[in-house]
Amino acid sequence: MQNIFRSEFSDKTLIAVAHRLDSIIDFDRIILMNQGVVLENGPPIELLAAGTKFRALWDSFHADSESSSEEKQV
Hints:
Layout: H1 2-8, E1 30-34, E2 37-42, H2 44-47, H3 53-73
Antiparallel strand pairs: 1-2
């Protein structure tokens, strides 16, 4: 699906609700919301700056991914 989004909708505005952050990291703009309130918005590269809520989510997501893959290897 991600490839279809990128190829068929490259010149369109696409609104995606995502829980897997890797699937949206190359989007032009990310809007981080919590209970209907916009917490942060901007280009992913800017939101990955230290101290942002998006960065904390990103780090948490990758820490969880690493611990899951380590558990599978044991």
